[in-house]
Q: What sequence folds into this?
């Protein structure tokens, strides 16, 4: 661990920013919260005690310079506006060389865009919830698991649904990283286990990952929910 | 020409003579820009009231749709400098306005008019 606690700047004092700051302080980080609205900022200060709550615009360079940003380890931009989060992260990255920038993304199709535009991590609550829905559906209909008792090893049978995985080989999919495909069956015929996937393929996988992990990782590529 | 705006009233202001297309939606949204034909566009300019919205949609135009000429307006001179250095073609009305004001006060109205003329598109040029 570092000798001094990591310094985190949170941009945006809405509900996400408030609870994020609260948890970061509890975990022992040094935190500065930046909030535009003076009244909101003073209410947060009163509730969070001594945390530095700065009134200002997280996209204004002169103001950012007063926040000690050049020594920040992380900047997390979590306002409700994607464009503000993007610009805050880009300024932090380009001008102040902040090593880790994280943006909250409201429109899930902006996740990849933000990463392309230099944001280190883009997090979309919409996408996370979507994945959970996919996961719940895939889980109940298309995935069957046999856990080896007393271990975290399992054999999993998956029926490949429509989704982004189609046309790609299991070895190309992050969901299957490190997993061994034992068997692939298409239309009742055994095929080469790393063939490009087609809808309805059944694959048998040997996994050492804890169950929840595997299921959470898998659906992003495996499933799109059909109406 | 296609105009993208989040509000219907904005289209009413274009008047009956406007011959271009109007697309309702958020100009930072890739799907909206795609619908507006961004994939086949030669010129793109973002001029909403929000600097960050302009910056973001210009970057979408450039990075996603590879539009050859992309321009964006940024009111904040400091932010404008940063994105200009980053390679976006930007302009800042604050800086342009300040230059004209400075000319007016220091050199008088004629000099200020010449400065204005240099940055003004004549009505006749509008197709």
A:
């Amino acid at each position: 661990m570092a000798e001094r606690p990591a310094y985190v700047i949170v941009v945006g004092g809405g509900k996400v920013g408030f609870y994020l700051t609260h948890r970061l302080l509890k975990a022992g980080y040094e935190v500065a919260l930046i909030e535009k609205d003076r009244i909101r900022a003073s209410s947060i200060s009163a509730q969070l005690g001594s945390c530095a709550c700065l009134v200002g615009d997280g996209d204004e360079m002169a103001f950012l310079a007063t926040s000690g940003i050049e020594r920040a380890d992380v900047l997390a931009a979590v306002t409700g506006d994607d464009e503000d989060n993007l610009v805050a992260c880009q300024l932090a990255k380009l001008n102040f060389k902040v090593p880790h920038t994280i943006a909250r993304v409201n429109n899930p199709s902006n996740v990849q865009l933000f990463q392309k535009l230099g944001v280190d991590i883009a997090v979309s609550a919409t996408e996370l919830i979507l994945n959970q829905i996919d996961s719940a559906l895939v889980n109940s209909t298309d995935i069957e698991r046999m856990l080896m008792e007393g271990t975290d090893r399992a054999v999993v049978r998956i029926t490949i649904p429509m989704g982004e995985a189609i046309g790609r080989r299991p070895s190309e999919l992050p969901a299957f990283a490190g997993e061994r495909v034992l068997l692939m069956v298409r239309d009742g015929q055994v095929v080469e286990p790393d063939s490009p996937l087609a809808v309805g393929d059944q694959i048998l996988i040997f996994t050492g990952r804890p169950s929840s992990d595997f299921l959470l990782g898998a659906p992003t590529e495996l499933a799109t929910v059909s109406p | 020409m296609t105009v993208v705006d989040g509000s219907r009233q904005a289209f009413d202001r274009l008047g009956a003579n406007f011959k271009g297309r109007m697309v309702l939606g958020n100009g930072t949204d890739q799907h909206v820009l795609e619908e507006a034909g961004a994939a086949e566009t030669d010129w793109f300019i973002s001029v909403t009231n929000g600097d960050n919205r302009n910056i973001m949609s210009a970057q979408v135009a450039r990075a996603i749709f590879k539009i050859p000429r992309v321009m964006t307006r940024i009111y904040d001179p400091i932010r404008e400098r940063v994105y200009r250095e980053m390679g976006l073609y930007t302009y800042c009305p604050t800086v342009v306005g300040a230059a004209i004001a400075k000319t007016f006060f220091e050199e008088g109205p004629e000099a200020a008019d010449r400065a204005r003329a240099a940055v003004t598109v004549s009505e006749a040029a509008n197709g």
